[in-house]
Amino acid sequence: MLKEKVLDPTKFICARDLFCAAHDASLEAKTIENALERARTREQVHTQSYGIHSSCGIRDVMQPTDARMQLEERKKELYEQDMQLIRYCYEVLYGRDKSHGLSELVDFRAVQAVEYKYLHDMKWVAIAALFNAPVITARRMCDYAFDVIDSLGFEKTIAGIGQATLDDYMV
User: Fold this and answer.
1) Cα(161)–Cα(104) distance, rounded to whole angstroms?
2) Of 68, 70, 97, 98, which is the most exposed, with the fewest CB atoms less than 10 Å away?
């Protein structure tokens, strides 16, 4: 049975909820990719044995391929939903077409901290080490990024429209 994950940003109470859901989706997508890779490995050509075979050991050589195709079919929709959520989070962080987004509004390290933690499943210690900062600083960067997203909303964040930009439009 498929989990329902229809991408509707209004279903998320706040940015942290969106990125926590994306974190779960990222882990789930990696699990699906690993399962499919294992299935592909099982269907690869194996060495020919020239030993004596018993007639009761008849094996369907297409069985691994059939199993992989069935697995792909079962997981396809779930994987696509996961990837759709992850792509939306990248739009929030970097904007559509990699322009604007949260990266235009806050310190880039805050954007990277959110990406590394929630989309790449890095540990806080590793993120802090990348920034040569304490773990609490890495956590605060994420909190700050989420506060900005929550104050502007998802669509304005994607567009890179901050308060100063909004003031320019009011004139």
Assistant:
1) 8
2) 97
Q: What is the pLDDT of residues 27-81, one digit of tens each?
A: 998 888 887 777 667 666 555 555 555 555 545 556 666 656 666 666 788 888 8
Contact predicate 96/158, CB 8 Å:
yes
Q: Which residues does 12 contact at the CB level (< 8 Å), separation at least 6?
A: 18, 21
The closest of 60, 56, 164, 61 to 106, measured between CA atoms, is: 164
In the chain, the N- to C-terminal Cα span, in Å, equals 53
CB 78 within 8 A of CB 3: yes
Structure tokens given for 114: 């959110």
